[in-house]
Sequence to fold (285 residues):
Amino acid sequence: MNIIEAQNLTCPIDGEKLLKTDKQFVCRSGHSFDIARQGYVNLLPVQHKRSKQPGDSKAMVQARNRFLNSGVYEAIADKLTQNVSAHIINDNALCLLDAGCGEGYYFDFLLQQLRQQPSENNLSFIGLDISKDAIVQATKRNKLTSWVVGTNRQPPVAEESVDIIICMFGFFCEQGFHRILKPGGKIILVDPGAQHLKELREIIYDEIKKTKLSDVLQFDEERFSLLDSEALQFETVLSDNEQINQLLLMTPHFYRASKAGREAACKLEWLNLTIDVAFKTLQKI
Ligand SMILES: C[S@@+](CC[C@H](N)C(=O)[O-])C[C@H]1O[C@@H](n2cnc3c(N)ncnc32)[C@H](O)[C@@H]1O
Fold:
């Protein structure tokens, strides 16, 4: 498949189409957004921010980057690729968007796999995250993706211009996703299942919180239909204290855990781990 540049970014201020020049993206009304030296564009105006540095911190981004690069979650990336491939029909141009792409591991894995598939399809990739640190890290993975700082709430992308949205361990924004998807477009959601990381959660939480995970997805059935729902489960062993700490830091558990629980987990040299993730595909009606 051929990877082409996305042409459907829009101005976050007035929604007009953005045109790319050498150093900037510019809309018809003259709003301009510099292309950073790393190659990404920041389309998150201050009025869309709820804090000064929204999204994951640099420390979380780096922990996730190192953890994912170790390959522990490669089976998840493989399954994502299979799911996305199944929805790529022969078409001239398809746009894929990763909503909350983080440091880009899954989207880059997908891109590298798809570009090897023999087909004349033209694919464009938009990696969107509200964390500037995450996007800066993601730009190191490949230069073929349009890496964008922005929000899932109001993705700076033209209406009905995206074929497939992936949202991994992220923030499902029904309205924002519905607006940018083409009719019949798909959302592939990947979320933790009930057993996900249970051994870690047993260490860091008290009894009540252990069973608090819910995998019930709320969506408007007049806007989307659920095409399929599948679980991926496997077990692995982490035998490195640094890696266990990276895992802890990259998940929201780090902030939710008690001090004692966090300290206990930080000292672990070895951890048996259940991976349990739910893949769900929604289709825009
Ligand atoms: C748990 S991380 C998952 C990152 C990546 N999808 C992965 O699985 O490696 C959630 C990501 O969502 C981003 N995020 C949080 N709120 C967001 C929003 N409103 N719009 C876009 N991204 C957001 C965070 O910065 C973070 O990178």
About this structure: Residues 2-193+214-231 form a domain with the Rossmann fold fold (CATH 3.40.50.150). Residues 74-86 form the longest helix (13 residues). The mean pLDDT is 94.
